[in-house]
Design goal:
Elements lengths: L12 H15 L9 H4 L6 E5 L11 H20 L2 E5 L1 E2 L3 H14 L9 H25 L10 E2 L3 H16 L3 E11 L4 E3 L4 E17 L4 E7 L10 E4 L13 E3 L6 E6 L11 E4 L5 H9 L31 H14 L12 E12 L7 E11 L12 H10 L4 E3 L3 H10 L4 E2 L1 E2 L9 E4 L4 E3 L15 E3 L3 E2 L1 H5 L2 H6 L6 H5 L2 E7 L3 H16 L4 E7 L20 H8 L1 H9 L12 H23 L14 H22 L3 H29 L3 H22 L4 H8 L16
Parallel strand pairs: 1-2, 3-4, 9-11, 15-23, 22-23
Antiparallel strand pairs: 5-6, 5-14, 7-8, 7-13, 9-12, 10-11, 14-16, 17-21, 18-19, 18-20
Length: about 725
């Protein structure tokens, strides 16, 4: 006999959630190998797999995590109840640069500096910090109701994951997709590391455009260049003009004199020069500008070796720069360079306001973590992945493989509009710098011999085949975190249980926020196709970024952050999950505020009270008796069948927001307000047959609604379901959908 005393008290999620999660975890049903599928459904079930985007193991979960956990748990619970062999593989990300930033802030508070801590000691501190956070984070996932298979949990720093990352790196090198050299990178002076294009944010700013004269003695004339970076003039190697620009026809092939270093600069032509910018003449400074670097590499006739004059700390450091500029920071050096140029009469006052345009607007690139303006600097020994070139064996480029997979429909985006954005990004993709100059991460397995030979090996080589030397130095850099996490879908399944890769790959859905479509999703598609020959997932579900009721992005500085664990303590995980789903259309930013969460706590109370009423009034229900249903009862049951079909169709079409809202309205406004109220007289009446029919109707609708609501509100539905008078009852999480 079911104990109904618990229904005498108001619904209190604190009393049931931890207990219910333990019940689920102890059942073993999170593990697809332990699901009673063959008995309940069929011998050869379909598989359904989601690889959890691994949360960064560097702090507590936030509402963004709660969104993707809820969305994925809905899909997982639905497919598990459908009878699919369902795997949700959880994980955690060491998060490279992101974790380094978090730990740097911790060190700053402690009055310490990472640059003064030995690398090995710092790494040990950071691994302890990360593993402690990882454990906390996993318990928070449990609080949210994540029904993932903890027996298969993976970490991006697991030895077997690192082994696969190394294998991919080696294969890229062997196939000609990888190269190392001196290249201009996006350098963050504060964090002392290079960043990839996707780790930058852009801001429109007013800059100053200076018009500088370069004397051309052969022509007894000068050529004027417009620049925002006069402090880099000592590093100029040439001046370029567009071949179609008739203004500079007589200058082509002649020399101009650098006004700050007095060096001779060849005047060349290149189609990349924008005739409408400034004067149409461009100073070429390849160590401080990516376009200049590309132009320099196209022109072997430039007889000057390029050099960097700004060091990694953003200070002038070059013997060819005027002595007055030595050691100055960038902004100070800019002012000083203008003073020197003006004193030399090298500012062309025939342009703008005495050679200076104060109203020039341009896009400035910033570090996405600290907002420091990015400094384009050339760095030696940077590893790059070729994104658009075909490999040596003539197969498709990494970019073309991914584009073809999306065009052919092997990978589908939800919502579909992101396909256009994906193609736009892929069209403009550049080679990917995967070297990072931070201590935290997976060390690049490249060894440099004194003869300049590079050997890819996870262990130090014993001898160089080229020069017989045993003197090797390992590359000091670590991989960009997106390089390792881009291999996550296949790396996880290749390193869990025997046959997992064969059984569960390709996976079914990758759900993540739209803002990392290019950061991560594109990388996963490319690497999945490159390593396995198959797309890593069939669907990419892109959810939005959580915003407050004023549509402001949540941030600590604005004071509008909602702690998911805090609201779970107040209102319960089920209420939070419903608040995160209702109104959350794919690709759009959901609006979350405390009143909304409180409203769904009230809905949970309504479910509890309605269930209490039904259970208290069906104690004498006899299921073995054939029910004499009224025409109204039959109509209600037909409506229930339609509801089941509608909810199933909405979930199958990824319209979770609509399914949740429909269930909310049906349970509250149709079931509780109308159906229960309409049968109350029958429950009190003397006609036992009619009473039994009313009881059957209520229990049937309640049981069905608990199943339909379970993916969305798993805790309260499981707790109530265990009190239903149902024969051969399982846990609701594995009952048939």
């Amino acid at each position: 006999m079911t104990d109904l005393n618990k229904f005498n008290k108001p619904y209190d999620p604190k009393e049931i959630c931890d207990k219910i999660y333990r019940l689920w975890e102890e059942s073993g049903y999170f593990n697809p190998d332990k699901l009673p599928i063959s008995k309940t459904y069929n011998l050869k079930p379909k598989t359904f797999t989601i690889i959890m985007p691994p949360p960064n193991a560097n702090g507590a979960l936030h509402l963004g995590h709660a969104v993707f956990i809820t969305l994925q748990d809905i899909m997982i619970r639905y497919h598990r109840m459908k009878g699919d062999k369902t795997l949700w593989l959880p994980g955690a990300d060491h998060a490279g640069f992101e974790t380094q930033v978090v730990y740097d802030k911790k060190l700053e508070k402690e009055g310490r500096n990472r640059f003064k801590i030995p690398t090995d000691e710092l790494y040990k501190e950071m691994i302890d910090f990360t593993l402690a956070n990882k454990k906390t984070m996993e318990n928070q996932l449990r609080k949210l109701g994540a029904s993932c298979d903890w027996s298969r949990e993976k970490f991006t720093l697991d030895k077997d994951i690192i082994e696969i990352v190394y294998q991919t790196f080696k294969k890229l090198k062997e196939d000609g997709f990888l190269y190392q050299g001196k290249r201009v990178v996006n350098w963050c002076i504060k964090h002392q590391t290079a960043l990839s294009e996707v780790e930058l944010k852009y801001e429109e700013r007013k800059s100053v455009l200076y018009y500088v004269k370069y004397q051309a003695p052969e022509l007894n004339s000068h050529i004027t260049v417009a620049t925002t970076r006069p402090e880099t003039i000592p590093a100029d190697v040439a001046i370029a003009v567009n071949p179609k620009d008739k203004r500079y026809k007589k200058f082509i092939g002649k020399y101009a004199v650098n006004p700050l270093s007095n060096e001779k600069l060849l005047i060349i032509v290149d189609a990349a020069v924008d005739m409408k910018f400034g004067t149409g003449a461009l100073k070429i400074t390849p160590d401080h500008d990516k376009l200049d670097e590309e132009i320099y590499n196209r022109h072997p006739e430039i007889n000057k070796i390029s050099r960097r004059i700004i060091n990694l700390f953003g200070k002038i450091e070059d013997e060819n720069a005027p002595v007055e500029m030595a050691g100055l920071k960038i902004n100070e050096a800019r002012k000083k360079s203008i003073e020197i140029l003006r004193a030399k009469g090298a500012i062309d006052e025939s342009f703008a306001d005495k050679g200076i345009n104060n109203n020039y607007t341009n896009m400035v690139s910033l570090c996405y973590k600290c907002n420091t303006q990015i400094e384009p600097l050339s760095l030696d020994n940077q590893w790059f992945v070729k994104m658009t070139e075909k490999p040596r064996l003539g197969k498709k480029s990494l970019r073309d493989m991914a584009v073809e997979a999306v065009k052919s429909g092997k990978v589908k985006f939800i919502p579909e509009r992101f396909k256009k954005i994906f193609f736009h990004w892929m069209k403009n993709i550049r080679d990917w710098n995967i070297s990072r100059q931070v201590p935290w991460g997976i060390r690049i397995p490249a060894w440099h011999c004194e003869c300049k030979e590079i050997i890819i090996s996870k262990k130090k080589p014993t001898k160089c085949s080229k020069c017989n030397s045993s003197n090797f130095q390992q590359d000091p850099d670590v991989f960009d975190t997106w390089f390792s996490s881009g291999q996550w879908p296949f790396a996880t399944l290749m390193t869990t249980k025997k046959n997992d890769f064969k059984t569960f790959y390709p996976t079914d859905v990758m759900d993540t926020a739209w803002d990392i479509l290019f950061f991560w999703v594109a990388r996963m598609i490319m690497f999945g196709l490159y390593i396995t020959g198959k797309s890593p997932f069939k669907y990419v579900y892109l959810h939005g970024l959580v915003r407050d009721k004023d549509r402001q992005k949540m941030s600590k500085s604005k004071g509008n952050v909602i702690d998911p664990l805090g609201v779970i303590d107040l209102y319960g995980a089920d209420a939070l999950r419903m608040a995160l789903i209702v109104g959350n259309t794919p690709g759009n930013d959901p609006i979350i505020y405390e009143e909304k969460i409180r409203g769904y706590r009230n809905f949970a109370n309504k479910i509890w009270q309605a269930s209490r009423f039904i259970l208290m009034n069906t104690k004498d229900f006899k299921p073995q008796i054939k029910q004499k249903l009224t025409a109204a009862d039959k109509k209600r049951l037909k409506e229930l069948i339609k509801l089941k079909k509608d909810i199933t169709n909405l979930i199958e079409s990824f319209k979770f927001y609509a399914a949740a809202e429909k269930l909310y309205h049906y349970f509250w406004h149709t079931f509780a307000d109308k159906i229960i109220e309409s049968v109350k007289p029958r429950l009190k009446g003397n006609n036992s047959g009619d009473r039994q029919a009313a009881q059957y109707l209520l229990l049937e609708i309640l049981k069905s609604n608990l199943k339909l609501l379970h993916p969305f509100m798993p805790f309260i539905t499981e707790e109530i379901y265990q009190s239903l008078p149902v024969k051969n009852k399982n846990l609701l999480m594995i009952e048939k959908w």
